[in-house]
């Protein structure tokens, strides 16, 4: 009699090999949960609705956090019912306050918020309107100095691709041109012979590469500004004096069209969604040169499999970092891909979140110690709810790869099952790697079983894969280890008795 045990799941999701060829500790499916610092699989908290039902809620756009307790959404209509205060426990301010900011461009209606950021404690917002114009606002007022000599008139149809605050300036991208405001004055963009405020100007990013590099996103990478285009990343050292701006490394063959997926991760990394999957920009030791690290390689196949045809990656993907455990979240096509990274424990593992609060997400922001998601209709969900500890009814699913017990051609008779877990799980065993729908039920397990007689199990095959699904109840659940007990049988000689 033999026993095989999977004692942790630190490898997380891995689709680099077939389900019958993955090593112990990897997951074929790990949904609605994440990997803990100890290597356990833990069911996620719930995405609990905190804003819904306000009149014209679907007429608001964007979401900006002050990082402490206030959230801001934008629109041009006169909407009543704001601010909304959501009482919170285990939260420094005691509540999340959701505010509505009305931004008007004559009689036109807002259709999109392209970018929003803070400058000197006030909001700089770029929004589209149904008259075809893209308008800049600072502290609720149209930035009239955004013109030729800056970039274009406030009434222009030119669409600003990306914007961010960096080193006492606002940077805004227009096609291949990167404009920057006067330092300390975000409403001054004039850079002529006698500017009223110094420091404004622009850089033509296409002069450094192919001659037609459209800027799609901006990020701070260590002490440099990373300028993204679909197929390249340029690193620049920026100065308050524009004549001292200096180009650095140019990384080709990678980039992004999804600006809201570009996010700082840790103190020296930037993560983004590329055409091939989730990637990171990370310094290496030799000369501080940047290189592309394939952080998302284990789930590339899964991402490409789950992106529907025609899905607008550029507009409907976003990312954030969970402030409690430092996990990276990236939403794509209704699935949040979660990266649990604890280098001290040698854990770098992907899992996924799905269900209510993950579907049709347009924004993910951090406010205080909560992640808040917003969907396309304006509804908002707090991860963990008002206490930070709430669960929802979405079940967690763990599908382990097929195991051969170090004897790929030998048949085994399964005799028992054990698990170290909490919560209630339905357990099945799979015996055919070519048909994952064929399952043998072990039953429901709701306790640590190793101290008791083995749970009886039946089945016969060369490769066996446990599958576990937690109960659809708003309760915690976790999985630490599973064991299969078996009797060795005949070797594969071309026939099976």
Please tag this protein with its features.
7-stranded antiparallel β-sheet, disordered C terminus, 497 residues, 45% strand, mainly beta, 42 strands, 5-stranded antiparallel β-sheet
Describe this protein's structure:
- The chain is mainly β.
- 2% of the residues lie in helices and 45% in strands.
- It has two helices and 42 strands.
- Strands 1, 5, 6, 36, 39, 40 and 42 form a seven-stranded antiparallel β-sheet that branches.
- The chain is elongated and about 90 Å long.
Topology:
Elements: E1 2-6, E2 12-13, E3 26-27, E4 29-31, E5 33-35, E6 41-43, E7 47-51, E8 61-65, E9 70-75, E10 84-87, E11 95-102, E12 110-119, E13 122-129, E14 134-138, E15 141-142, E16 162-166, E17 169-174, E18 177-180, E19 201-204, E20 217-221, E21 224-229, E22 232-237, E23 246-252, E24 263-264, E25 269-273, E26 278-283, E27 290-293, H1 300-306, H2 313-316, E28 318-321, E29 328-332, E30 335-342, E31 347-353, E32 361-367, E33 370-375, E34 380-383, E35 397-399, E36 410-422, E37 425-430, E38 439-445, E39 455-456, E40 460-461, E41 465-470, E42 478-491
Parallel strand pairs: 2-3, 9-11
Antiparallel strand pairs: 1-42, 4-35, 5-6, 6-42, 7-34, 8-9, 10-11, 12-13, 13-14, 14-15, 16-17, 17-18, 18-19, 20-21, 21-22, 22-23, 24-25, 25-26, 26-27, 28-29, 29-30, 30-31, 32-33, 33-34, 35-41, 36-39, 36-40, 36-42, 37-38, 37-41
